[in-house]
């Protein structure tokens, strides 16, 4: 594994343990430069292709999914392990569909449904980008239609 600091591949594993409910292995590594970093190992059953709204296709990028979820959950009281489990759950759900191509709309819907239960504020944040609200009234109408805030 290449060290993110000095870009050299002379690292050793200091600690390994299962994480994300056993769907991944977390490895703590140590580089000869003294830097420590963490890597994750996950099973990937098939290469997934994302079909965008405009018809373009691109390989599924877990990191891109992760980034959008972390942005929605920024400064929210959700710990990193819970977020990683959530991301793994979305990824596994996509795998379970049994398709090699999956629409970005399907992925967005999965994320929104999951965020609705995980954190209502993150749900609204993600929806505001995913649904591409153009005006304030679009946002207000969306919030008025959902009931995640009404049951609190």
Secondary-structure map:
Layout: E1 11-19, E2 24-31, E3 36-42, E4 49-51, E5 57-59, H1 62-72, H2 80-96, E6 101-103, H3 104-118, H4 120-130, H5 136-145
Helix pairs in contact: 1-2, 1-4, 2-3, 3-4
Characteristic terms for this protein:
alpha+beta; 6 strands; 3-stranded antiparallel β-sheet; 152 residues
Task: Describe the overall structure.
With 152 residues, the protein is of the alpha+beta class. The protein folds into 2 domains: 1-43, no CATH class; 45-145, no CATH class. It is built from 5 helices and 6 strands. It has a 3-stranded antiparallel β-sheet, with no helix packed on it. The chain has a 3-stranded mixed β-sheet with strand order 5-4-6. α1 crosses α2 (80-96) and α3 (104-118) runs antiparallel to α4 (120-130). The chain is globular, with a radius of gyration of 18 Å. It starts with 10 loop residues before the first strand and ends in a 7-residue tail after the last helix.
């Amino acid at each position: 594994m290449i060290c993110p600091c000095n870009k050299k591949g002379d690292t050793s594993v200091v600690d390994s343990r299962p994480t994300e409910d056993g769907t991944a292995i977390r490895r703590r590594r140590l580089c000869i430069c003294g830097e420590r970093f963490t890597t994750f190992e996950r099973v990937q059953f098939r290469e997934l292709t994302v079909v965008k709204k405009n018809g373009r296709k691109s390989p599924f990028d877990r990191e891109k999914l992760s980034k959008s979820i972390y942005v929605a959950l920024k400064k929210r009281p959700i710990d990193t392990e819970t977020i990683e489990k959530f991301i793994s759950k979305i990824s596994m759900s996509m795998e379970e569909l049994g398709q090699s191509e999956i629409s970005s709309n399907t992925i967005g819907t999965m994320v929104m449904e999951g965020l609705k239960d995980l954190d209502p504020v993150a749900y609204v944040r993600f929806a505001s980008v995913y649904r591409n609200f153009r005006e304030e009234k679009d946002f207000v109408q969306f919030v008025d239609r959902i009931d995640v805030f009404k049951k609190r």
